[in-house]
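Chapter summary example.
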Amino acid sequence: MTLNERIQQLKTHKVYGHYYGVGLLVFLAFLFWAFFKILTPDNFGSWEGMYYYLQSSIIYSVGACGFYFIVTMGLFDFSIGANVVLSSIVGVILSKQFGYAGLVTGCIVTGVIIGFLNGSLYVKLKIPSMIVTVGLMLIYESLAYFVARGEKQSLDSSLRGLGVAPGNIILAVIMFILAHLILRYTKIGTYAHAIGSNESMAKNMGVNVNKYKVIGFMLLHFFVGVMAVLAVSYGTSMTAVTEMTSMARNFTPLMGCFFGVAFRKYCSPVIAIVIGEFIISIIFNGFVALGAPTTIQNLITGAALLIIVALTLRSVKGTIVK
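The structure predicted for these 322 residues follows.
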């Protein structure tokens, strides 16, 4: 057996493959940290700074875990950012009457309703998910503007505990555990991969494909609802936006999700998502520390997204968007 064959064998081994995937992600995180630390040692990479990067990255990690449920089925959703805005606004408004219960319930219930609408319309209309969700994104943005009456909605200072440690970390970890359990021990986890790999075969096996696609959208937006709780608690306020401005909120969770898709053959997708989002946070904050203009940051974001998607599609089948 050659050295290359032995390495490939270890990669696919149940135990050593797990360590390989996690180890590779940790190495990438260290590599990017070291790169920016060398370039700007005074402005980047302190322990306090890394803790800040982690707390900001877990917000997107929660959304990325939800994204995984539909991306692995070959679907996509452009309304994630609009959901964050609308759910946050509803949550903040309800929090003024019901406190934390109103904030959390308002964000999550709004998210689940949006997920049900997205999934149902996609199944009924039978057109690509990207087209359906672009149209719905515009509707949700307008709805958020009307609900907020064009005014910024600020969260009361006594209700911001889920935006700082340990509240945000505890909530995020609960969501990570929940995502892992759903993916590993429920039918939706099994069927999502089956539908993404071969939808026709899944139908022939008796899987109600349309039903599980709708459930996938609902799970996505349930996690996005929790992401909205974390985002508005962290940022302390939310302003309604229009003209597809909310779309910018889609791409960071999407990039983290693709880490999960690309590394799922080595380790739990949830672990890959969390570390992947941390890597993205390191890169973004590294360019901020360098004083790079926004155009350069957007250029790097676009390039990184293309690279991650290319590597994902090369290594994992069943990710064609439908």
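To summarize the output: Residues 46-315 form a domain with the ABC transporter involved in vitamin B12 uptake, BtuC fold (CATH 1.10.3470).
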